[in-house]
Amino acid sequence: MSEHTVSAYEEELRVLAGKIAEMGGLAEILVADAVKALTRGDLALAKRVIPEDRRLDQMQREIEDAAILVIARRQPMASDLREVVSFLRIANDLERIGDLAKNIAKRVIAIDGQMISKKLTVGLDHMAEIALQQLNSVLDAYGNKDDALALEVRLGDDEIDALYTSLFRELLTYMMEDPRNISQCTHLLFCAKNLERIGDHATNVAETVHYVITGEMMDPDRPKADTTSLERVALPG
Amino acid sequence: MSEHTVSAYEEELRVLAGKIAEMGGLAEILVADAVKALTRGDLALAKRVIPEDRRLDQMQREIEDAAILVIARRQPMASDLREVVSFLRIANDLERIGDLAKNIAKRVIAIDGQMISKKLTVGLDHMAEIALQQLNSVLDAYGNKDDALALEVRLGDDEIDALYTSLFRELLTYMMEDPRNISQCTHLLFCAKNLERIGDHATNVAETVHYVITGEMMDPDRPKADTTSLERVALPG
């Protein structure tokens, strides 16, 4: 490639990386706002989150189109190709994080005005805090090509999984104690699961970052600490 | 492109389309087996489903690698490019369907041996049947480039959503009637949600088929009949 072509190519990559950063920032805001709406019972905020998800969908399509055009026109190889493929993968994960935030916001509307017990609020807030930290760190790891930070994010997912398992048990206990809690707690169970899945998507991004930097896949056998799908909860009485 | 190149290119597309069909077939089997394991309480079958999901993950990676190589080497344009992009998108949806089937299988182990009420089994079986029909139809629509069938699949998703909404209400009622049902019904709620999401992925594939054939996106404003995240269930007593 001539110098002129190389610099045009680098500019294309720079623009795409900028769009990923923008998408990441928007995804973070949607998750934070959805959880804030949930724990404060803020219906107006929940209603503002829901349509915002569309912007992430649109951005994903734009990134996909642009990345594929780059592959076709520039025929990048090796690490350059991995870089462009990472745009496709990360945009996909961020779009899904937006879906999960939107789903939390919809459930805020479902449990309209019902007070959530302080203890559950604390648990959800804590899960959301860790999930957002993970998302923030992995976007930093991506921006700075920081493999060590990406590995850290991946290991950190165990903490979210453990918090989810604990909240899952707590929510089941609440439901068993009083059937009037069942409807609300069911929505909170799905919200907690959504936060756990947001953590999984941050982990996916961490794996993509590792792949971009090293050309290698992370070991798929990472042990999972979310064991609730294998959980048998003791029944009262 | 020379005739020789064109035919090599067509052969690459043919191989990729074959891999998608193979992935689709495996995804169908995993969903069918996971649901069979659930409604029959067949632990051995559930344990066979769980590791099979890995094969779908592996196939997705292979399809992604091969499709990107085709884009870089052949620089397809217009409908050819859409065809190759569709491999990426559909492999992604099929991989996620595999994850959802695996999650159902894990929950079979969680509710180990507990009998599921006949009424709930019927509801789950019916949802699974429609979801599998949708998946099967959309894979046919893809294989035969049948836009009318793709549109039909997309419209059919409303039925799965409606079944999910109805099952969601039923499960909540069961939980309210007897707290001893809560643990099992929670897992069944997630299983039902997984089936509903499998339907969403079939819809995504339908949208990709429409895009391959026409070059246009389907209208994103399709009304959704899964309203459970907006649901306020009447509390007993």
Automatic annotation (TrEMBL), chains A, B:
Q: Does the keyword Cytoplasm apply?
A: yes
**Residues forming coiled coils:** none
Quick one: where is this thing mainly located?
cytoplasm
KW Zinc (keyword) present: no
Tell me the GO BP annotations in alphabetical order: intracellular phosphate ion homeostasis; negative regulation of phosphate metabolic process; phosphate ion transport
Keywords for this entry? Cytoplasm, Phosphate transport, Transport
Q: Which residues form the signal peptide?
A: none
Q: What does the UniProt entry say about where the protein is found?
A: Cytoplasm
Which Pfam families does the record match to this protein?
PhoU
Give the CC-aspect GO terms. cytoplasm
Annotated PhoU domain ranges read: 20-108, 125-209
User: What functional role does this protein have?
Assistant: Plays a role in the regulation of phosphate uptake.
* Quaternary structure, from the entry: Homodimer.
Q: Name the family the entry cites.
A: Belongs to the PhoU family.
- Which protein is depicted? Phosphate-specific transport system accessory protein PhoU
As recorded in Swiss-Prot or TrEMBL, the protein's gene is named phoU
